[in-house]
Structures are given as structure tokens and as C-alpha cells.
Amino acid sequence: MQHFQRDIKDHWRVRYQNPGFPHVQQGWVLPPGQEKSFDPFIVMAEDWFKRGTFSDHPHRGFQTITYVIDGRLEHIDNAGGYSVLDAGDVQYMNAGSGARHAEEAYENDLIHTLQLWLNLPERLKGSDSFYQNIRVEDAPVAELDGGSIRVYSGDVAGVKGPMESLVPITMAEVSLHAGAEYTHVLPENHNAFLYVLAGDLAAGESGTALSKTDIATLTFNEEGEESVPSELQIRANSRTRALIYSGVPLRENVVAHGPFVMNSEDEIRQAFFDYQAGKFGPPAVK
User: Fold this and answer.
1) Is 101 assigned to a binding site?
2) CATH code of the region 4-247
3) Among 20, 95, 214, 254, which is least packed by CB within 10 angstroms?
């Protein structure tokens, strides 16, 4: 059986800005306002920051996946959770009905992170909030011909990632030597994208050239099935590292405003009212 062959749907290079200390640098990997195209993903930000940038703040109605590129990330939540994540570690958060937390650079570090916002279906927007830390050593690695792949979520390359997402997603980091070729297999109905962390590669049927800080969205079979695989061809032109994410589109109305992602403007207003009324609980402080 011939599997659906993925190609590059669109691609661009991340543009960076300097918001001002302590938020040293920021770029939109997945920019705001394109929720229908990125579904089930909402935005993805790349940030360099010092302590004091992302202190206590609320969320409702979605999930976050934070990947630490460099430095140490201190997590504090108002349910008593505390942890420090290092390079290669990932934190999954389900904000659900309401979360209040802080994500800070640890001590005097300059932290470099990628944070992806992953939507929740309407039926799960009232779910309980929770956090899951995935240490780099706990994400299984599959050896490839000319490289390796570390799997944080989903079933990829014969191994299963430990992330306990409320919706079906995959997240994997592919590392390839120069000249290596790799076929990445994903469910055909998953909307997917890849982000190049280092090096340069050619991807998809078209062999589209991508290099560091390039983002590419992929074609997929919108009427396909979760159980049917599709293939993305990748060739590394130099030593290369890339993150690949995929998820099933929700096809629901999305209203994103500030720290909340809901299905209507009324629900956004209610989220702000609930937060101001103290329904998200006390501040997240150490």
C-alpha cells in the first residue's frame, strides 16, 4: 500500500525582536492569528529571557508544551508545584479550567525556550489543570541510519514518548549526520510542522531546502485516519537537528485573547471575570 507522501505546504524564517530587558529576545515560530491553518496548534514562541519576564500569570482553555533549548527554567505553580528544567527537558501543562503559574529563568541564567500552545477541544476546556515534566533522559531514543530520534510524545520510530497529552499529538527531535536520509512516519490525518534547530536539510516530495530557524508546515490527508501512516522524507545536507510536531485538527471555533483560549468571546470575558474574582487561586510564588 502506498502511503500518503508529505510535502512542504508553507515555510518561513523566524523573525526576532527585542522586547526589552528582562525579555531579551523573542520570535514567533507559529505567529498569532493563524489558528485555522495551524489547528490544533495556536502559536509557538521562541524566547530568551532573564528572571522577571514570566512571573505569576493565569491560563485557561488550552495546553502548553515548553522545550528548554538552553539554560535552566524554574517552574512554580499555585498548587504547590516546583521544578527546575534543564536543556532538552520538556514541560507539558494542561491549563484546563484554570492554571496559575510562573516560568522563570533560574537564578541568573539566560534561558532559551520554545513554547507551543496546543488547543483543547470544547469538551475538555473545563478539565482539571496539571503539569508533567519530561526529563531528556526519560524520553526514549531510537537509533537511525545516520542519526537518532528522541520521542517526547506519541508513537514514533518504534518507541513511545512519555507525554500524557489530553489530545493525540506527536513530538520528536531528529538528529542527523551530514548526508543521512530519514523517513519520518506520522498518522496521515495529523496536521504537522517542523522547526530546524541546527544545520540544513531538504524535506518533502519537493525536497524543499530548510535551514536553522526555518519553520515548515506540512501537507496532510484531512479526511484520513489516525491508524493510517504517512511519510515525510528528510535528507540532512549538514549535521542537522529538527523538532517535528503533529496533532489532529479540532475544527472548532477559536477565540484567543491574552492568556486564555476559548470558543467564544463570552467565554473569554468569563475567564477574565473569574481570574479577577480570585477563582484561579492565590499567586504562584515560591
Assistant:
1) yes
2) 2.60.120.10
3) 20
